[in-house]
């Protein structure tokens, strides 16, 4: 009878918790009750654990939403980064930057390296860390960002878009070097960088040198002004020379040094 009454009471509590929008507490109630009985916990310890389960689940969902809204990949974190793969990488410096002081100081962070050396992974990992710290983050490839800004010219919303981006705590711009240039692009980038200066931290990844930016963007004069603003108290991660994950990483295709003769 006691067991039957307990089950009825547990189901009643679960229903009431759901009505109060405490779904995670409802789902975890029986498991936490069993653990409390095994460990002979007091009432306060049991209640603390029950409430903690709700707070943990809510925090995890909030982080998931921030990561998704930022356009980040959950898979590219510092935990999944191979710290031993790039001999040229200053690991200690990167881990110092992962404390995110550069965001609080509104500093640009430049990540340079050849194709497939881990630049995007590092940029994404900084973004995930910033989301965990409850910073407002946005991630774009340069081509996608320029397309968004250029589209705003048609309806005169470019200034509004730039203002919205400059209100982020961290704006990540990936893959400078892969764009289909338009004459308006350099000016759009300059406007964005100027709006973010001393207000929003930037992370920019590039597989080309700063000297080549003018050639790629199409206006060396404006590009020089962009570089000047970015290098005002900027941080730099240089992965040059770097190994390619695509051709030398653990998942790279393996060549057979002794192919069998075929007839």
Which regions are unreliable across 5 or more consecutive residues at pLDDT < 50?
A: none
- On the 0 to 100 scale, the average pLDDT is 91
Major beta sheet summary: 5 strands, parallel
Please identify which CATH superfamily of the largest domain we are dealing with.
Answer: P-loop containing nucleotide triphosphate hydrolases
CATH class of the largest domain: Alpha Beta
Seen as an oligomer or otherwise, the chain set is single chain
Helix content: 55-70%
Q: What is the CA-atom radius of gyration, in angstroms? A: 25 Å
What is the CATH T-level topology of the largest domain?
Rossmann fold
Order of strands, widest sheet: 2-3-4-1-5
CATH architecture of the largest domain: 3-Layer(aba) Sandwich
Q: How do the helices and strands follow one another from N- to C-terminus?
A: HHHHHEHEHHEHEHHEH
Helices, by number, come to: 12
- Class computed from helices, strands and strand pairing: alpha/beta
Shape: elongated
Distance from N terminus to C terminus (CA atoms, Å) equals 81 Å
Give a written overview of the molecule:
The chain starts with a helix and ends in a 15-residue tail after the last helix. It is elongated. The mean pLDDT is 91. It has 263 residues and is an alpha/beta fold. The chain has a five-stranded parallel β-sheet with strand order 2-3-4-1-5. It is built from twelve helices and five strands.
């Amino acid at each position: 009878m006691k067991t039957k009454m307990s089950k009825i009471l547990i189901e009643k509590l679960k229903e009431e918790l759901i009505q109060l929008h405490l779904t995670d507490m409802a789902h975890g109630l029986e498991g936490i009750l069993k653990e409390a009985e095994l460990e002979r916990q007091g009432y306060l310890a049991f209640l603390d654990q029950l409430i903690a389960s709700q707070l943990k689940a809510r925090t995890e969902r909030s982080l998931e939403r921030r990561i998704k809204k930022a356009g980040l990949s959950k898979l590219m974190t510092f935990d999944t980064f191979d710290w031993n793969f790039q001999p040229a990488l200053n690991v200690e410096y990167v881990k110092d930057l992962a404390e995110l002081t550069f965001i609080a100081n509104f500093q640009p962070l430049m990540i340079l390296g050849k194709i497939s050396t881990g630049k995007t992974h590092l940029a994404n990992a900084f973004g995930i860390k910033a989301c965990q710290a409850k910073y407002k983050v946005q991630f774009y490839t340069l081509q996608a960002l320029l397309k968004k800004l250029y589209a705003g010219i048609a309806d005169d919303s470019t200034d509004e878009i730039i203002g919205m981006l400059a209100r982020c705590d961290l704006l990540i711009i990936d893959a400078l070097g892969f764009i289909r240039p338009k004459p308006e692009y350099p000016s759009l980038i300059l406007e964005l960088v100027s709006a973010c200066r001393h207000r929003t931290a930037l992370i920019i990844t590039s597989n080309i040198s700063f000297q080549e930016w003018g050639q790629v963007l199409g206006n060396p004069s404006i590009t020089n002004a962009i570089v000047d603003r970015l290098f005002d108290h900027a941080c730099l991660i240089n992965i040059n020379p770097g190994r390619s994950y695509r051709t030398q990483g653990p998942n790279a295709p393996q060549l057979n040094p002794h192919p069998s003769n075929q007839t």
